[in-house]
Amino acid sequence: MADKSKNILERLEAGEVIVGDGSYVNTMEKRGYVKAGNYTPESSIEHPQAVEQLATEFARAGGDITQTFTFYSRDVGTPEGCDLTCLEINQASCDIAKKISEKKGTIVAGGIMQTGVYRTGVAVKGTPEGKAEVQQELIEGLEVLIKNNIDLIIVEYFHNIEEMEWAIDLALRYGKPVAATMCIGPTGDGSGVSPGECAVRMARAGAPIIGINCLFDPFICLETMRMMKKALDAEGLTPFLMTQPLGFRTPDAGRFGWITLPEFPFSMEPRQITRWEVARYAREAYDLGVRVIGGCCGFEPYHIRAIAEELAEERKGFPEGSDKSDHDLSTMKKKADLGRPDYAMKGSKQFWMDLVPCTGRPMSAALYKQPDPQLINKAIFQ
Q: For residue 212, which phi and psi values (nearest 5 degrees)?
Protein backbone atom coordinates (compact mmCIF):
# COMPACT_ATOMS: atom_id res chain seq x y z
CA MET A 1 0.00 0.00 0.00
CA ALA A 2 2.89 2.36 0.80
CA ASP A 3 3.66 3.18 -2.84
CA LYS A 4 0.05 3.91 -3.87
CA SER A 5 -1.28 7.35 -4.65
CA LYS A 6 -3.03 9.12 -1.81
CA ASN A 7 -5.42 10.76 -4.27
CA ILE A 8 -8.59 8.71 -3.91
CA LEU A 9 -10.03 9.92 -7.21
CA GLU A 10 -6.96 8.78 -9.17
CA ARG A 11 -7.28 5.33 -7.65
CA LEU A 12 -11.02 5.09 -8.23
CA GLU A 13 -10.63 6.21 -11.82
CA ALA A 14 -8.02 3.47 -12.26
CA GLY A 15 -10.65 0.91 -11.19
CA GLU A 16 -9.52 0.26 -7.63
CA VAL A 17 -11.89 -0.69 -4.82
CA ILE A 18 -11.16 1.47 -1.77
CA VAL A 19 -11.77 0.02 1.70
CA GLY A 20 -12.67 2.57 4.35
CA ASP A 21 -11.98 2.37 8.05
CA GLY A 22 -14.55 1.77 10.77
CA SER A 23 -15.81 2.86 14.17
CA TYR A 24 -13.84 5.31 16.31
CA VAL A 25 -16.16 6.94 18.84
CA ASN A 26 -18.22 3.80 19.51
CA THR A 27 -15.19 1.52 19.74
CA MET A 28 -13.18 3.95 21.85
CA GLU A 29 -16.13 4.22 24.25
CA LYS A 30 -16.14 0.45 24.66
CA ARG A 31 -12.39 0.48 25.24
CA GLY A 32 -12.72 3.15 27.94
CA TYR A 33 -11.39 6.23 26.14
CA VAL A 34 -14.56 8.13 25.17
CA LYS A 35 -17.43 9.13 27.44
CA ALA A 36 -20.87 8.15 26.16
CA GLY A 37 -23.16 11.12 25.78
CA ASN A 38 -20.27 13.48 25.06
CA TYR A 39 -18.67 11.36 22.32
CA THR A 40 -15.70 13.73 22.00
CA PRO A 41 -12.13 12.71 21.06
CA GLU A 42 -10.06 14.29 23.82
CA SER A 43 -8.32 10.92 24.12
CA SER A 44 -6.18 12.02 21.16
CA ILE A 45 -4.35 14.10 23.77
CA GLU A 46 -5.11 12.18 26.97
CA HIS A 47 -4.47 8.68 25.55
CA PRO A 48 -2.87 9.09 22.11
CA GLN A 49 -1.53 5.53 22.12
CA ALA A 50 -5.10 4.18 22.25
CA VAL A 51 -6.20 6.22 19.22
CA GLU A 52 -3.03 5.28 17.34
CA GLN A 53 -3.58 1.60 18.14
CA LEU A 54 -7.11 1.59 16.73
CA ALA A 55 -6.04 3.44 13.58
CA THR A 56 -3.23 0.91 13.13
CA GLU A 57 -5.67 -1.97 13.51
CA PHE A 58 -7.92 -0.59 10.79
CA ALA A 59 -4.97 -0.11 8.42
CA ARG A 60 -3.65 -3.59 9.16
CA ALA A 61 -7.13 -5.00 8.51
CA GLY A 62 -7.05 -3.57 4.99
CA GLY A 63 -8.40 -0.05 5.38
CA ASP A 64 -7.07 2.30 2.71
CA ILE A 65 -8.29 5.35 4.61
CA THR A 66 -7.28 6.71 8.01
CA GLN A 67 -9.82 9.25 9.20
CA THR A 68 -8.80 11.93 11.67
CA PHE A 69 -10.43 11.47 15.09
CA THR A 70 -11.65 15.07 15.02
CA PHE A 71 -14.95 16.68 16.04
CA TYR A 72 -17.05 19.79 15.73
CA SER A 73 -15.41 23.18 15.23
CA ARG A 74 -16.15 24.92 18.51
CA ASP A 75 -15.26 24.42 22.17
CA VAL A 76 -18.44 22.58 23.20
CA GLY A 77 -19.39 19.07 24.23
CA THR A 78 -16.35 17.78 26.08
CA PRO A 79 -16.86 16.07 29.47
CA GLU A 80 -16.89 18.10 32.66
CA GLY A 81 -13.36 18.74 33.81
CA CYS A 82 -11.83 18.62 30.33
CA ASP A 83 -10.24 22.00 29.62
CA LEU A 84 -8.77 21.10 26.24
CA THR A 85 -9.81 23.24 23.29
CA CYS A 86 -11.35 21.89 20.12
CA LEU A 87 -8.32 23.10 18.16
CA GLU A 88 -5.88 21.32 20.49
CA ILE A 89 -7.81 18.05 20.25
CA ASN A 90 -8.25 18.21 16.50
CA GLN A 91 -4.56 19.01 15.91
CA ALA A 92 -3.52 16.02 18.00
CA SER A 93 -5.97 13.86 16.04
CA CYS A 94 -4.46 15.04 12.74
CA ASP A 95 -0.97 14.26 14.04
CA ILE A 96 -1.99 10.68 14.82
CA ALA A 97 -3.67 10.13 11.44
CA LYS A 98 -0.64 11.48 9.58
CA LYS A 99 1.66 9.23 11.61
CA ILE A 100 -0.35 6.14 10.64
CA SER A 101 -0.46 7.28 7.02
CA GLU A 102 3.33 7.57 6.93
CA LYS A 103 3.67 4.03 8.30
CA LYS A 104 0.89 2.32 6.34
CA GLY A 105 0.48 4.49 3.24
CA THR A 106 -3.18 5.23 3.95
CA ILE A 107 -5.21 8.16 2.65
CA VAL A 108 -5.73 10.75 5.40
CA ALA A 109 -9.36 11.86 5.52
CA GLY A 110 -10.92 14.53 7.67
CA GLY A 111 -14.64 14.94 8.15
CA ILE A 112 -17.12 17.74 8.70
CA MET A 113 -20.67 17.05 9.81
CA GLN A 114 -24.09 18.65 10.30
CA THR A 115 -23.92 21.96 12.12
CA GLY A 116 -25.41 23.19 15.34
CA VAL A 117 -26.70 26.35 13.71
CA TYR A 118 -28.74 24.37 11.15
CA ARG A 119 -29.94 21.72 13.58
CA THR A 120 -31.17 24.24 16.15
CA GLY A 121 -32.72 26.60 13.63
CA VAL A 122 -30.31 29.48 14.26
CA ALA A 123 -29.48 29.37 10.56
CA VAL A 124 -32.69 30.08 8.66
CA LYS A 125 -33.31 27.35 6.12
CA GLY A 126 -33.63 28.27 2.49
CA THR A 127 -31.95 31.64 2.84
CA PRO A 128 -28.56 33.06 1.77
CA GLU A 129 -28.03 34.19 5.36
CA GLY A 130 -28.65 30.65 6.63
CA LYS A 131 -26.20 29.24 4.13
CA ALA A 132 -23.55 31.74 5.22
CA GLU A 133 -24.00 30.82 8.90
CA VAL A 134 -23.75 27.09 8.18
CA GLN A 135 -20.66 27.54 6.03
CA GLN A 136 -18.99 29.74 8.64
CA GLU A 137 -19.32 27.00 11.26
CA LEU A 138 -17.99 24.43 8.80
CA ILE A 139 -15.05 26.69 7.85
CA GLU A 140 -14.00 26.66 11.49
CA GLY A 141 -13.94 22.85 11.43
CA LEU A 142 -12.13 22.67 8.11
CA GLU A 143 -9.32 25.07 9.02
CA VAL A 144 -7.29 22.56 11.02
CA LEU A 145 -7.82 19.84 8.40
CA ILE A 146 -6.63 22.05 5.55
CA LYS A 147 -3.70 23.30 7.63
CA ASN A 148 -2.64 19.66 8.02
CA ASN A 149 -2.99 19.04 4.27
CA ILE A 150 -5.35 16.08 4.51
CA ASP A 151 -5.87 14.00 1.37
CA LEU A 152 -9.68 13.75 1.41
CA ILE A 153 -12.55 15.82 2.83
CA ILE A 154 -15.50 13.69 3.92
CA VAL A 155 -18.72 15.68 4.24
CA GLU A 156 -20.62 13.19 6.38
CA TYR A 157 -23.52 12.61 8.73
CA PHE A 158 -25.78 15.22 7.18
CA HIS A 159 -29.50 14.54 7.58
CA ASN A 160 -30.86 17.30 5.36
CA ILE A 161 -29.98 17.66 1.69
CA GLU A 162 -30.07 21.46 1.77
CA GLU A 163 -27.37 21.62 4.44
CA MET A 164 -25.43 18.94 2.56
CA GLU A 165 -25.48 21.03 -0.63
CA TRP A 166 -24.16 24.02 1.29
CA ALA A 167 -21.39 21.86 2.80
CA ILE A 168 -20.37 20.41 -0.57
CA ASP A 169 -20.24 23.89 -2.07
CA LEU A 170 -17.82 24.92 0.67
CA ALA A 171 -15.67 21.76 0.66
CA LEU A 172 -15.05 21.94 -3.08
CA ARG A 173 -13.40 25.34 -2.70
CA TYR A 174 -10.32 23.80 -1.09
CA GLY A 175 -9.17 21.84 -4.14
CA LYS A 176 -9.26 18.49 -2.34
CA PRO A 177 -11.19 15.34 -3.31
CA VAL A 178 -14.60 15.42 -1.62
CA ALA A 179 -16.80 12.52 -0.54
CA ALA A 180 -20.33 13.36 0.60
CA THR A 181 -22.36 10.88 2.68
CA MET A 182 -25.78 11.38 4.26
CA CYS A 183 -27.14 9.62 7.34
CA ILE A 184 -30.49 8.61 5.85
CA GLY A 185 -32.50 5.46 5.27
CA PRO A 186 -35.08 4.45 2.64
CA THR A 187 -37.57 7.06 3.89
CA GLY A 188 -35.26 9.91 2.97
CA ASP A 189 -33.83 12.93 4.75
CA GLY A 190 -35.12 14.90 7.72
CA SER A 191 -37.44 16.91 5.48
CA GLY A 192 -38.80 13.90 3.62
CA VAL A 193 -36.70 14.32 0.48
CA SER A 194 -36.28 10.89 -1.13
CA PRO A 195 -32.88 9.12 -1.25
CA GLY A 196 -32.96 9.35 -5.03
CA GLU A 197 -33.43 13.10 -5.05
CA CYS A 198 -30.76 13.49 -2.36
CA ALA A 199 -28.30 11.54 -4.52
CA VAL A 200 -29.05 13.58 -7.63
CA ARG A 201 -28.69 16.84 -5.74
CA MET A 202 -25.38 15.78 -4.17
CA ALA A 203 -24.02 14.83 -7.59
CA ARG A 204 -25.23 18.07 -9.17
CA ALA A 205 -23.66 20.01 -6.30
CA GLY A 206 -20.34 18.67 -7.58
CA ALA A 207 -19.38 15.91 -5.14
CA PRO A 208 -17.35 13.30 -7.06
CA ILE A 209 -18.08 10.64 -4.42
CA ILE A 210 -21.52 10.33 -2.81
CA GLY A 211 -23.29 7.88 -0.55
CA ILE A 212 -24.56 7.17 2.93
CA ASN A 213 -23.12 6.57 6.39
CA CYS A 214 -24.16 5.53 9.90
CA LEU A 215 -27.65 5.31 11.53
CA PHE A 216 -28.78 2.14 9.71
CA ASP A 217 -27.38 -1.36 9.20
CA PRO A 218 -25.56 -2.50 6.06
CA PHE A 219 -28.55 -4.04 4.34
CA ILE A 220 -30.83 -1.07 4.96
CA CYS A 221 -28.05 1.17 3.67
CA LEU A 222 -27.73 -0.99 0.57
CA GLU A 223 -31.46 -0.72 -0.07
CA THR A 224 -31.15 3.05 0.27
CA MET A 225 -28.16 3.03 -2.08
CA ARG A 226 -30.17 1.11 -4.69
CA MET A 227 -32.75 3.88 -4.61
CA MET A 228 -30.02 6.47 -5.00
CA LYS A 229 -28.34 4.67 -7.88
CA LYS A 230 -31.62 4.22 -9.74
CA ALA A 231 -32.22 7.97 -9.61
CA LEU A 232 -28.63 8.75 -10.63
CA ASP A 233 -28.86 6.37 -13.59
CA ALA A 234 -32.12 7.96 -14.71
CA GLU A 235 -30.43 11.37 -14.75
CA GLY A 236 -27.25 10.10 -16.43
CA LEU A 237 -25.11 11.01 -13.40
CA THR A 238 -22.09 8.83 -12.55
CA PRO A 239 -20.40 9.85 -9.29
CA PHE A 240 -18.42 7.21 -7.43
CA LEU A 241 -20.52 5.55 -4.71
CA MET A 242 -19.59 5.14 -1.05
CA THR A 243 -21.18 3.28 1.88
CA GLN A 244 -20.19 3.37 5.55
CA PRO A 245 -23.11 1.81 7.42
CA LEU A 246 -23.77 1.03 11.06
CA GLY A 247 -22.35 -2.19 12.51
CA PHE A 248 -25.61 -3.26 14.19
CA ARG A 249 -28.83 -4.73 12.78
CA THR A 250 -31.62 -2.12 12.90
CA PRO A 251 -34.71 -3.18 10.88
CA ASP A 252 -36.95 -1.90 13.69
CA ALA A 253 -35.43 1.58 13.90
CA GLY A 254 -37.27 4.87 13.58
CA ARG A 255 -36.40 7.69 11.19
CA PHE A 256 -33.19 8.52 13.05
CA GLY A 257 -31.88 4.97 13.03
CA TRP A 258 -30.20 3.21 15.90
CA ILE A 259 -30.52 6.13 18.32
CA THR A 260 -34.30 5.45 18.41
CA LEU A 261 -33.72 1.96 19.83
CA PRO A 262 -33.93 1.30 23.59
CA GLU A 263 -30.61 -0.57 23.47
CA PHE A 264 -28.75 2.57 22.39
CA PRO A 265 -26.06 3.20 23.53
CA PHE A 266 -25.20 0.65 26.21
CA SER A 267 -26.80 -2.63 25.11
CA MET A 268 -26.30 -2.84 21.37
CA GLU A 269 -24.02 -5.88 21.46
CA PRO A 270 -26.72 -8.50 20.71
CA ARG A 271 -27.40 -6.61 17.46
CA GLN A 272 -23.73 -6.66 16.36
CA ILE A 273 -23.28 -7.83 12.79
CA THR A 274 -21.06 -10.83 12.16
CA ARG A 275 -18.04 -10.91 9.87
CA TRP A 276 -20.07 -13.06 7.48
CA GLU A 277 -22.82 -10.47 7.27
CA VAL A 278 -20.08 -7.95 6.52
CA ALA A 279 -18.74 -10.18 3.76
CA ARG A 280 -22.24 -10.36 2.27
CA TYR A 281 -22.60 -6.59 2.55
CA ALA A 282 -19.24 -6.05 0.83
CA ARG A 283 -20.13 -8.36 -2.06
CA GLU A 284 -23.58 -6.82 -2.54
CA ALA A 285 -22.13 -3.32 -2.37
CA TYR A 286 -19.50 -4.17 -4.95
CA ASP A 287 -22.08 -5.77 -7.26
CA LEU A 288 -24.21 -2.62 -6.92
CA GLY A 289 -21.30 -0.51 -8.11
CA VAL A 290 -20.10 0.91 -4.79
CA ARG A 291 -16.35 1.41 -4.89
CA VAL A 292 -15.63 2.99 -1.50
CA ILE A 293 -16.75 0.41 1.04
CA GLY A 294 -16.25 0.85 4.77
CA GLY A 295 -18.16 1.13 8.01
CA CYS A 296 -19.20 3.52 10.74
CA CYS A 297 -20.21 3.04 14.39
CA GLY A 298 -19.95 -0.62 15.40
CA PHE A 299 -17.58 -1.64 12.58
CA GLU A 300 -14.58 -3.16 14.34
CA PRO A 301 -11.20 -3.92 12.71
CA TYR A 302 -12.20 -7.54 12.04
CA HIS A 303 -15.22 -6.26 10.12
CA ILE A 304 -12.96 -4.14 7.92
CA ARG A 305 -10.77 -7.20 7.40
CA ALA A 306 -13.87 -9.13 6.31
CA ILE A 307 -14.51 -6.52 3.60
CA ALA A 308 -10.92 -6.70 2.37
CA GLU A 309 -10.93 -10.50 2.37
CA GLU A 310 -14.26 -10.81 0.57
CA LEU A 311 -12.94 -8.50 -2.15
CA ALA A 312 -9.38 -9.87 -2.17
CA GLU A 313 -9.64 -11.02 -5.78
CA GLU A 314 -10.88 -7.63 -6.96
CA ARG A 315 -8.21 -5.89 -4.86
CA LYS A 316 -5.49 -8.31 -6.00
CA GLY A 317 -4.39 -9.44 -2.57
CA PHE A 318 -5.19 -9.94 1.08
CA PRO A 319 -4.57 -7.35 3.81
CA GLU A 320 -1.71 -7.58 6.28
CA GLY A 321 -4.13 -8.68 9.00
CA SER A 322 -5.05 -11.83 7.09
CA ASP A 323 -1.83 -13.47 8.31
CA LYS A 324 -3.79 -14.28 11.48
CA SER A 325 -7.09 -15.01 9.76
CA ASP A 326 -8.46 -18.40 8.72
CA HIS A 327 -9.89 -16.63 5.66
CA ASP A 328 -9.93 -19.78 3.53
CA LEU A 329 -11.27 -21.87 6.47
CA SER A 330 -8.45 -24.38 5.97
CA THR A 331 -7.89 -24.68 9.73
CA MET A 332 -11.59 -25.31 10.33
CA LYS A 333 -11.60 -27.91 7.55
CA LYS A 334 -8.58 -29.74 8.95
CA LYS A 335 -10.27 -30.10 12.31
CA ALA A 336 -13.48 -31.28 10.63
CA ASP A 337 -11.50 -33.82 8.60
CA LEU A 338 -10.17 -35.25 11.87
CA GLY A 339 -13.74 -36.28 12.63
CA ARG A 340 -14.44 -33.70 15.29
CA PRO A 341 -18.23 -33.17 15.37
CA ASP A 342 -17.89 -29.65 16.80
CA TYR A 343 -16.19 -28.60 13.55
CA ALA A 344 -18.48 -30.44 11.13
CA MET A 345 -19.32 -28.22 8.15
CA LYS A 346 -17.39 -25.30 9.65
CA GLY A 347 -14.78 -25.50 6.94
CA SER A 348 -17.45 -24.45 4.45
CA LYS A 349 -18.03 -20.76 3.77
CA GLN A 350 -21.65 -21.53 2.91
CA PHE A 351 -22.20 -22.87 6.44
CA TRP A 352 -21.23 -19.50 7.89
CA MET A 353 -23.08 -17.45 5.29
CA ASP A 354 -26.29 -19.39 5.98
CA LEU A 355 -25.98 -19.31 9.77
CA VAL A 356 -28.57 -17.30 11.69
CA PRO A 357 -26.90 -16.50 15.03
CA CYS A 358 -28.81 -17.01 18.29
CA THR A 359 -28.76 -14.52 21.17
CA GLY A 360 -28.54 -17.13 23.91
CA ARG A 361 -31.31 -15.28 25.74
CA PRO A 362 -34.57 -17.29 25.91
CA MET A 363 -36.67 -14.17 26.50
CA SER A 364 -34.94 -12.06 23.86
CA ALA A 365 -37.29 -10.22 21.51
CA ALA A 366 -36.57 -10.25 17.79
CA LEU A 367 -37.62 -6.62 17.34
CA TYR A 368 -38.32 -3.54 19.43
CA LYS A 369 -41.95 -2.40 19.38
CA GLN A 370 -41.03 0.87 17.68
CA PRO A 371 -43.75 3.52 18.12
CA ASP A 372 -42.83 5.07 14.78
CA PRO A 373 -41.31 2.30 12.62
CA GLN A 374 -39.87 3.50 9.34
CA LEU A 375 -38.81 0.26 7.72
CA ILE A 376 -41.38 -2.34 8.72
CA ASN A 377 -45.17 -2.33 8.94
CA LYS A 378 -46.76 -1.59 12.32
CA ALA A 379 -48.92 -4.67 11.86
CA ILE A 380 -45.89 -6.82 12.75
CA PHE A 381 -46.18 -5.61 16.34
CA GLN A 382 -49.89 -6.38 16.72
A: -140, 155
